[in-house]
Sequence to fold (552 residues):
Amino acid sequence: MDAGKLERSSVVFAARFLANLSFQPQITNVSDVVPIRTALISVSDKMGLADLAAGLQRAGVRIYSTGGTRKHLEQSGIDVLDVAEYTGFPEMLDGRVKTLHPKIFGGILAIRDRDDHMDAISDHDIEPFDLVVVNLYPFAATASRAGSTRAECVEQIDIGGPSLVRAAAKNHNDVAVATSPEQYGELLEQLDSTGGTSFELREQLAADAFDHTAGYDRAIADFMRGENIGGEFPASLHLSLKRKTQLRYGENPHQRAAVYSDPNVRSANVVSARQISGKDLSYNNLLDLDSALEIVRGFGGPAVSVMKHNNPCGAATDQNLVDACRKALAGDPLSAFGSVLGLNRTVDTATAELLCEPGLFIEAIVAPDFEAQAVGLLTTRPKWRDNVRLMQAGRLDEPSQPIQRRFISGGMLVQDADRMTSSSLQWKTVTEEQIEDELWDDVSFAWEMVRHVKSNAIVLGKDTSLIGVGAGQMSRVDSVEIAIEKAGERAPGSVLASDAFFPFPDSIEAAADAGIVAIIQPGGSRRDDEVIDACNQHGMPMVFTGRRHFKH
Fold:
């Protein structure tokens, strides 16, 4: 194993070790509470810093700091000692070298109950640090920001920060380390009540610290390898996710659940979306919201999707959002009860008025934004009132993630996302009858929709709306029959899309009997000629796309 991999592996192992460690009785001389007399503070994220420093100052803690952090604290009225004056060595190289000095690291790493360690730092006038407060340069934020140059990203690779964090975490018997503003409250509580920190807290902070540096290094490695911009699949894959919240339960009440955020995801998504109203999200809500948002993201014009049990039961596009919404809800009104909606435009008052009509019950809605009056209507007018979950996802300009990951027992499957990159110019009409010009919008709509339905997938589209879905059946002809049954009297004049080829002409016969006027499918069956002949016999045009869209 090369040195870089060995170091990264050791960081990850250290975090896991500390997170799960139960110290054995033979480890002695560990004080339950270590007083905080001296603190080193050097942070990029200054949120909550003034309050923390004020609490430390009230407790009589000497505070050492550097550069921008020192100036921030001084402007907040905090007495601060300058690290450069303490070390006798000035900051240099535009701040690249500030804390990398033996008088800093000696004060962090010295073991307090070893006389030789304490004699050594005393001989060199090194002051022991009891608390290290450090968070790192915003590398991930810089790398994900549109327009950032490679040089700007490289400059945000922190060197001194991770070294300070790891040193303090290693010596957590004697030193507390804080890497997040979220930890400041508990630190101050213990300081106020005990004058220091408990071993339990220091141990947890150390585990968090190693997690922090491991995730930071992983983001840099991914950037260097180009994984986040669609590069080759790496030889090793490490995920660094942060728990956002624990959920009430999973798919069923007896299953525990939580949701974690991925800091590398740049596009609008339901995990980072802002909830502006409603009850807490459930596990199933998040699955449906994610699928609903993915559907409408694929359309250029106003579009609405209606999700039920992670399959679309309605979807439509139109010239304006309210008409698209009306058509989408009409796709399967029975299934739309208790559904989740996705919209690719700001929810306006007219659309909100439609959703407030009697008889509708909506669990959750995700959209780029909501007009203030629309929020007022949706949370006061219908019977559901403020129970409906309204999720503000932000602009959908960025495409969704190029890579999809799925855990299976023993590992993970990774694949390119199934994006609609093929042009209709590559499609081929294989029947004698040609597609009429006025049907092409429905053909394209149906083909876009079928990739969002569980295989075997069949959809019927009409007037750029979804009117029938057959999903997840073991037999393709069963899916055809279910889609036709769902469409009912609306089936005549509709377009049928299939996610994969027809192995037999029986589905064509069923489609013709229902009055379907065109078919789009990948082709590729050994019996394609029989399927084409069946279409010709019924005067039904059929297009081959050459691309399959299984979704399992």
